[in-house]
């Protein structure tokens, strides 16, 4: 965290919570993070709960994110949700999560189209990138992540509507987080690559998050790295206490950032 940047802590609830449970969780997050300053708090519920959660957090400053989006505005795409449908309902949209890439076969080109579609609606894309264990062990992680980032941002130019989440696939949902050094170094490489893709100096819109087994216990050293501006949290975001702890730790690090 560097002084002058506002950290983002985003909870990705994935395919968990019924609408009733989602509202309860949202209310608990409101209560437990009330009064924490200087951190952008985001919750990403399943689509069916977006509206109800939005109402539950009204007035709290908590923002809403979608977990996915379709790149086309409308049409014969049964079961899909488009960016215009999310307009006014969410401020963020996760695009290119590794589960979407791996389980649902999304390509870098699909991800780039999604990022453009949401940014066109002034929804900030949280673009996920990250290498597999095999690539990490082969020593090609940085090269692979840079290439994935570049391909996932093909034709993108709405730099104020972008955050990038570095999520090594081997660290997601495994309880085996990257080390703060690994994550911090990769965030530095991502920042450099973004600068070269955008062709300009980084602005505040270039928030880079770390994701992969982040908890209230381990979040501090990640956010303390100069190039990491927050976290994308899966499992721990389903527990209001744990999520609140991550927000609190981040706020205190941001307050003393140099
Ligand atoms: P995790 O998930 O925190 O459960 O590892 C992170 C993510 O998938 O965004």
Describe it.
By secondary structure, the chain is α/β, with parallel strands linked by helices. The chain has a single domain, classed as TIM Barrel. Helices cover 41% and strands 15% of the residues. It has ten helices and eight strands. It has helices spanning 19-33, 47-57, 83-86, 98-103, 108-120, 133-137, 141-152, 180-198, 219-223, 240-255, and strands at residues 8-12, 40-44, 63-66, 92-95, 124-129, 162-166, 207-211, 230-233. Strands 1-2-3-4-5-6-7-8 form an eight-stranded parallel beta barrel, surrounded by five helices. Helix 3 (83-86) links the parallel strand 3 (63-66) and strand 4 (92-95). The radius of gyration is 17 Å and the shape is globular. The mean pLDDT is 96. The structure holds 2-phosphoglycolic acid (PGA). The site of 2-phosphoglycolic acid has 13 residues, from strand 8.
What order do the helices and strands come in, and which of them pair?
Layout: E1 8-12, H1 19-33, E2 40-44, H2 47-57, E3 63-66, H3 83-86, E4 92-95, H4 98-103, H5 108-120, E5 124-129, H6 133-137, H7 141-152, E6 162-166, H8 180-198, E7 207-211, H9 219-223, E8 230-233, H10 240-255
Parallel strand pairs: 1-2, 1-8, 2-3, 3-4, 4-5, 5-6, 6-7, 7-8
Helix pairs in contact: 1-2, 1-10, 5-7, 7-8
């Amino acid at each position: 965290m560097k002084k002058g940047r506002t950290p983002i802590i985003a909870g990705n609830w994935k395919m968990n919570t019924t609408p009733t449970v989602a509202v309860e969780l949202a209310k608990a997050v409101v209560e437990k993070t009330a009064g924490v300053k200087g951190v952008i708090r985001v919750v990403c519920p399943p689509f069916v709960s977006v509206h109800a959660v939005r109402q539950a957090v009204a007035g709290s400053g908590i923002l809403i994110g979608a977990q996915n989006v379709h790149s086309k505005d409308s049409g014969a795409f049964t079961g899909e949700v488009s960016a215009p449908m999310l307009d006014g309902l969410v401020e963020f949209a996760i695009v290119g999560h590794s589960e979407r890439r791996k389980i649902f076969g999304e390509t870098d080109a699909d991800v780039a189209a999604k990022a453009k579609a949401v940014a066109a609606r002034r929804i900030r894309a949280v673009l996920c990138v990250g290498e597999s264990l095999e690539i990490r062990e082969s020593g090609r992680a940085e090269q692979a992540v840079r290439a994935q980032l570049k391909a996932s941002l093909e034709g993108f130019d709405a730099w104020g509507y972008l955050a990038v989440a570095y999520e090594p696939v081997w660290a997601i949902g495994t309880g085996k987080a990257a080390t703060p050094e690994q994550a911090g170094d990769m965030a530095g490489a991502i920042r450099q690559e973004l600068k070269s893709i955008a062709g300009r100096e980084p602005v505040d819109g270039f928030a880079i998050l770390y994701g992969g087994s982040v908890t209230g216990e381990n979040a501090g050293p990640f956010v303390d790295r100069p190039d990491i501006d927050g976290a994308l949290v899966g499992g721990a975001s389903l527990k209001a206490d744990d999520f609140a702890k991550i927000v609190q730790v981040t706020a205190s690090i941001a307050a003393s950032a140099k």
